[in-house]
Amino acid sequence: MLQLETVPASLAGLLWVFRSCFTAPSFATFGALVVGLVAQSGRRTVCGMLVGAGLSRVWHHSRAHWFFSHARWSADVVGLALLALVVDWLLPAGAPIVVAVDDTLFRRSGRRVAGAGWQHDGAAKGPRANKISWGTCFVVAGILVELPFAARPVCLPVLARLSRPKAALTDMECLGVKRAWEIGRRRQAGLVSGARGGWLGRWEVRFRSSLTRGQD
Predict the structure, then answer these.
(1) Which of 16, 24, 42, 130 shows its CA 20 to 30 Å from the CA of 176?
(2) Which helix (H) or strand (E) holds 129?
(3) Degrees (nearest 5) of the Cα angle 154, 158, 161?
């Protein structure tokens, strides 16, 4: 069975960055699920992550489900911690921070799915006018980075929002953006040394306000 004590130091160090985002019990569950996500070679469902972590016979699966449905933590706080990690580790000093925003429709069935509705489906086949599907649309913001093993820039998602459809608005019009925009100017030395709260806060407010305008 995979024990948390046997997690490689490199992964344990990354997990510790998110310690302030959780209570002690929730952080233990979070760590186990991340380890299971990395180790799982099959389907990475909630139960699949427990299997990957070697905990499927140790923990009841309700512990993992409770973490997502009832535990006291914020996906926004985790996302901003991840954002800071990406900026500090994967962007060269002085490089611009490029934020890409796009939407993804997950096709669903049933009338009681929260946030579901008839929405534009860019992946649907056929004429553009007929690209409408029933489902939930998540608007995702990510940071564009260049990795040594990739031939082109990669977008690493850090924040997401469920876009609730409005008859008069498309999902991307709700955000007021199409593909991407560049925020701020070049990073300054102070941002790397810990005074990043200013630009993080402004970026989060912009992301939140864009969604709020789209839902009014």
Answers:
(1) 130
(2) none
(3) 120
Give Cβ neighbours of residue 167 (< 8 Å, ≥ 6 apart). none
**pLDDT tens-digit series, residues 100-124:** 988 888 888 887 888 888 888 877 7
Q: Which helix (H) or strand (E) holds 193?
A: none
- Residue 170 tokens read as 């498309």
Please list, in sequence order, all residues whose beta carbon lies within 8 angstroms of the beta carbon of residue 195, skipping any fewer than 6 positions away: none
Q: Using CA atoms, how far apart are residues 124 and 185, in angstroms rounded to an integer?
A: 37
pTM over 0.85: no
Maximum Cα interatomic distance, the chain, rounded to a whole number of Å: 54
- Say if CB 115 and CB 164 are below 8 A apart: yes
Residue 117: strand pairing partners = 135
Residue ranges per structural domain of the chain: 4-69, 75-215
Q: How many CB atoms lie within 10 A of CB 182?
A: 11
Q: Nearest CA to 104 among 191, 208, 175, 210? A: 175
